[in-house]
Amino acid sequence: MARLVAQAVGKDGEAPIIVENRPGAAGMIAADHVARAKPDGKTYFVGSNAPLVVNQALYAKMNYDPAKDFVPVSGMAKSPLLLVVRPDLPAQDVKSLVALGRQAPGKLTMGSAGTGNITYLAGEYAVSKLGFKVTHVPYQGSAPAIVGLMGGSTDMMFDALPSSMTQAQAGKIRPFAVLDDKRFAGLPEVPTAAELGYSGIEASAWFGLVAPAGTPPAIVERMNRGVNQALAQPELQRKLTGIGAVPMPGGPAVFAAFVQAERDRWLPVARDLGLKAQ
What we know:
The chain is about 40% helix and about 20% strand. It has helices spanning about 1-10, 30-35, 50-60, 95-105, 120-130, 140-150, 160-170, 215-230, 235-240, 250-270; strands spanning about 45-50, 70-85, 110, 135-140, 155-160, 175-180, 205-210, 245.
């Protein structure tokens, strides 16, 4: 997703953007690198749920302050979570999954993309709201978690669409519900959780651009314009939809308000559930 947006921004006359992967520690290695970078408009961080929000509740110590060490630039895209189960699980829908989970609390296993990932937090929150318990199985990313689900190593998962949609379309995993306020165009036959009577568990994996604190407002505004012009391109919109994402346009203040709303929602949830990094 970051590469698609970067390429589109470059087409609008901006200097070429290099996307550099710095994986590890639920996004905190990359976040810390950018937090310490010179605020000259040359280095940005593609932040997401974990490094900008959730990790504050899960980790006792962080080397950066997600609220103070960055300035919001722009939202980029979001991907609603999808409740999926292994192909041979003896449940046909959310209702029967809930019944199965209540029969033997903790017997069902739930994979996730990692402890600091929204797939973990939203999954734990959702099953608590649905009224049953699971055993969490963290993986190093969504791809291996989906492989584990397809192979039967886990029973269920709340995964972001980019990594689960293709396998769901191919019948290799079974989708039960989209955790969004409307159905996703790529899986029009899959109902929302609210449609099934399970409201209040909506959740998305999202991505947005932030810069080191102290970056001049003029630079932030210029990059924001570039990103939003890219997100308005029909070609990029089609590509994002194709990987299970929808654009998140808006000015820096819009993205700042969105991130704050996510903190207000998810940090108390993580603390109430007693979730900690494993």
